[in-house]
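Posting this for the archive.
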Amino acid sequence: MAEQREVLLKVDRLVKYFPIMQGFVFKTHKGDVHAVDDVSFDIYSGETLGLVGESGCGKSTTGRTILQLYRPTSGHVYFKGEDLVKMKGETLRKTRKKMQMIFQDPYASLNPRMNVGQIIAEPMIIHNTYKGKALQDRVMHLLELVGLNPAFVKRYPHEFSGGQRQRIGVARALALDPDLIICDEPIAALDVSVQAQVVNLLEDLQKELKLTYLFIAHDLSMVKHISNRVAVMYLGIIAEKASRDDLYNHPLHPYTKALLSAVPIPDPVAEEKRKRTILEGDVPSPVDPPSGCRFRTRCPIAEAVCAESRPELREITPGHFVACHLAKL
C-alpha cells in the first residue's frame, strides 16, 4: 500500500558531520564527528516511520537535520517535492509551518517564563495565522484536543507533570496545522504509566488530523505499536528498514536481531527458551568509525569482506532493505 501513496518526505544520502576544532585563537580542524553518514529513506503521507537504535547513533541529529535546525554537510531533503537544503530565509520559514517537532525533554523544551497560552500561541503569532479572539479560541481548542483543561491556559510549565508538559508540546506542534511531525523520543523522559497515554494521543491525532510522523525512539515495543515501517540506525547509518511486521518477525541484519533479542517477552517459559544475542564491546567512536561495515567490530558473523567495503542498503525481499554483505533469507 505504501508504494501507492504520495511520498511526503524523501531523505536522499543525508550527511551531517560536526567539525572538531582545536586551539583558542588560531583554531585548527582536527577531525569530524560522523553523526549522520549517507542516510536515505522515504516517508509516505499518513504513515508513521519508526527510527530506532542505541543512544548516540544519530537518530535525533537526523530529525533535526531534516528540519534544517542543523544544516546538512551534504545530501538532500525533499518535502512535497521541494529541496529544503536549497531553501533559505523567508522561503524556508514559510515551509517550516508544515513541519513541526515534538522534543524529547518536556522539562527543557517549554519556556518557564511563558504561560501555557503564550507557549501554544507563539508559533501562530510568529507566522501571523491567527489574531485576537480567534487566537484565544484556537489555543483553547488545542488544549482540549490534547486532553488538557482549557482553564489551565494561564498556568506555567512548572505547575504541570511530565506527561502534561509533553501534551503542551504536542499542542504547540499542532498549532500551525502541520503535515509532518518529527517526534524526537517524545516518551523517553516520561513515566511508564504515562507513555502509553501520550502514544495513544499521537495515534488519535494522526487519524483525526491526517498527520505523518517520523517517530524516533529506542523503545522497540513502543515503536512496534505505533509504526507502519521501521528503520534501524547504527553509528550514523541505516542498517535495515522494512515494514513493521516484516522487521520484527524476520529481522535480517545481525544488529537488528541483537536489538530484538533484548526486548523482554511477557511469558516466562518463552523468555527462558529463546536465544539471546549478546553483543561484545562498545559502540565505536563516531569520530573514527570502522572501515567497511560500521557494525563489523561487534558482529558475531563478520568476515574479511566486512572490513574491506561498506555494504550498500539492498532490497532482499520487496520492501525489506538491509545493509549487510552476509544477510540472506
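The chain has one domain: 2-21+30-322. The first helix runs from residue 59 to 66.
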